Amino acid sequence: PPPAPLGALPAGGAMPAPRGPSGARVMMVTANQPLPCTTRRGDWIMELALRNKLMYATLHDYKTWWSTELVSAWDLEAAWNKIPLLYVLMHPESPVTQGVEWLLWMDDDAIFTDMNFTMPLEQYDRDGINLVIWGDPQRVYRANDIQGLNTGVFLLRKCEWSRQLMAEVAALATPSIRRQIGNKGRIAEQGALTWVLHSQAERWKDRVQLERNFTLNGNWMDYAKKWVPGKPKLALPVWGNDAIPFVVQYAGCQMCRGHSENGSWHDGGVRKCQNAFIEAYTFGDDQVLSLLGLRHLTMDTHLVRASAGSELYQRHQRMTRCLPSFLVIGTQKGGTSSFHFLLKSGWHDAVRVNSGEKEIHYFSWDDQFRQGPLTYQQRFDGSGDRLGECAEETKLRGEVSATYLDYPKAAERAAMLLPSARIVVLLREPVARLVSSFNMKWQGEICGK
Predict the structure, then answer these.
(1) Distance (Å, rounded) from C-alpha 130 to C-alpha 9?
(2) Residues 73-97: pLDDT tens digits?
(3) Contact yes or no for 369/413 (Cβ under 8 A)
(4) Measured between alpha carbons, how far is 344 from 400 in angstroms, rounded to an integer?
């Protein structure tokens, strides 16, 4: 609904609220659908996207407002919902935004990828800016192009000017008006905001910053497979710029639904988008985890390891000091039994292997892995009631298990427990190895020998 008549406002219409007790100037606002996604993976993706936003807000002492409600469901559904939500949050007497000067809107499919970057609020204050949004002035003010700006991410000053702008956009939600201004009545809030700025440029333009000095919300397809863990630059530039974008948006991916509404977005496309999302999420999350001395094992896993030199890393080193320094992971029928026999027989004075049978299969067999690392440690000298407690010696410990080479979980498990272990692979001419493997299976499984 349109606001009540207003009295005189200070220059620019901006009325900064007094600072709250926490000193936070910004509230990050986001929303997602109230019902579960159609797939469990979709729920997981949405959970990660929300965590990303909350961690960014925590790092920068921002207040947050996470909405799952349709504020005005009868006329402002779906993407339009942000308009009435922001309108009510900017009410001068709203108890939840006391002390807040800016509202940072983030669509549910947008995530922060540069967790250290903050928008230049002081510059916007000096310039009298009330709305900061990615956009192209020519496409917005001259062409009325709905792709000339992006309402997936924008910064809005809490003031009556902004409430009036939201009211003007909301007024275009009426179906008859939508049909008048374009796209056969299917215009969304992005097109409505474009229309307002285009048709009423004299009223709004001076207080709008169509931000192009940094990547306010990059298109996910431009950045897929260009992240380099721990590096401040992209592997390849995007539009001539290799800087890390502030935000990347996964518009059109329909990750919660799992497919496109009109059927044009196939399963392969959804998987491609989700994989790209995980890479970008992990890149941003590593910046957060670094504060705890942690990082992800790879760009496509949730598993983490302690960073070298960190307190957690030093603890891990102490607790795994009695575990293997190297793993011989295969290949089967590639000479691993002979190599194990040589090591066990004292072929090298500085190396020792596990007692008992040759292969422990700790990282490859689930029943062995469930017994835990203490049982694994005891396979080497039988001593120690706690991890990291064993006889002092200078010999390197190693283990030989040919199943590690191709078992799906083995590499991930070994990387978590023994991140510094050296990996040894014995290979053999493929045909000879195949014949030997066949003979072993023939004798053991068919002949019973």
Answers:
(1) 14
(2) 656 667 788 999 999 999 999 999 9
(3) yes
(4) 11
C-beta separation of 429 from 390 below 8 A: no
At 109 the three-state DSSP class reads coil
pLDDT number for residue 303: 85
Task: Report which of 2, 9, 68, 70 is spatially closest to residue 33, judged by C-alpha positions.
Answer: 68
Burial 61-95 (b: 16+ CB within 10 A, else e): ebbbbeeeebbbeeebeeebbbbbbbbebbeeeee
Question: Kindly report the CA angle at 32 between 27 and 34, in degrees rounded to 5?
Answer: 125
The Cα–Cα gap between 68 and 32 comes to 5
> How far apart (Å, rounded) are the C-alpha atoms in residues 431 and 439?
12
Q: Which residue has the higher pLDDT, 87 or 7?
A: 87
Which residues in 297-426 belong to E strands, given as ranges? 304-306, 326-328, 351-353, 396-400, 422-424
- What letter represents residue 345's amino acid? S
CA distances from 396 to 66, 178, 348, 388, 414 (A): 53, 74, 10, 14, 17
Map tokens 């909350």 to a residue. 54
Judge residue 51's burial from the number of C-beta atoms within 10 Å of its C-beta, 0-12 exposed, 13-18 middle, 19 or more buried.
middle
* The one-letter amino acid at 328: V
Give the dihedral of Cα atoms 88, 100, 62, 256; nearest 10 deg. Answer: 10
* 291 closest CA partner among 310, 308, 313: 310
Res. 7: pLDDT tops 50: no
Closest by alpha carbon to 363, among 325, 320, 418?
418
d(CA 205, CA 291): 41
Give the residue ranges of DSSP H helices in 230-295. Answer: 267-289
pLDDT reading at 381 higher than 80: no
The alpha helices in 70-215, defined as continuous H runs, are: 82-89, 121-127, 137, 160-170, 175-181, 189-199, 201-204
Rounded Cα distance between 272 and 3, Å, is 44
Other CB atoms within 10 Å distance of the CB of residue 422: 12
Is the backbone of residue 144 left (phi > 0), alpha (psi -120 to 50) or beta?
left
22 close to 98: Cβ distance less than 8 angstroms: no
Burial 101-139 (b: 16+ CB within 10 A, else e): bbbbbbbbbbbbbbbebebbbeebbeeebbbbbbbeeeb
DSSP 31-97: E--SSPPSSHHHHHHHHHHHHHHHHHHHHTT-EEEEE-S-TTTTTS-GGGGHHHHHHHHT-TT-GGG
